[in-house]
């Protein structure tokens, strides 16, 4: 699988805002099943967890970009699992965080797995009430 960037995020990146500016303060949701065809489409699967931080606003904060990569900050990114299931994909939302079909929302989708995935978890089988933590994560803009 590959990272999928919404039309809204791609359009905003062509303006005066960088990806860090557009995504700081947003959040990540983890779903079961396969990711939608594009990040513009409505979420599929079951919502398993919402990831945020313990920093002041609770929104995800990204670090300093380098070599085409925007890493997570040093804050703890975690969330309580609200439904049991196998993590299939994640969706990152900007601060507006609107779900459903949209070509203007700033979102990124990526596959969760152990091989050829955009993000790996220590255990993809999630249990209700447990906490899932994202230890390492970055978004990469490929050179070609």
Task: Walk me through this protein's architecture.
The protein has one domain (4-140). The radius of gyration is 14 Å and the shape is globular. Strands 1, 2, 3, 5, 6, 7, 8 and 9 form an eight-stranded antiparallel sheet that branches. The protein has a two-stranded antiparallel ribbon with strand order 4-10. It has helices at 7-13, 19-23, and strands at residues 4-5, 27-32, 47-53, 69-71, 77-80, 85-93, 107-111, 125-126, 131-134, 138-140. The protein is 8% helix and 31% strand. It is mostly beta strands and 144 residues long.
Question: How would you concisely characterize the structure shown here?
Answer:
The chain is mainly beta and 144 residues long. 8% of the residues lie in helices and 31% in strands.
Task: Write out key terms for the chains shown.
single chain; 144 residues; mainly beta; two-stranded antiparallel ribbon; 31% strand
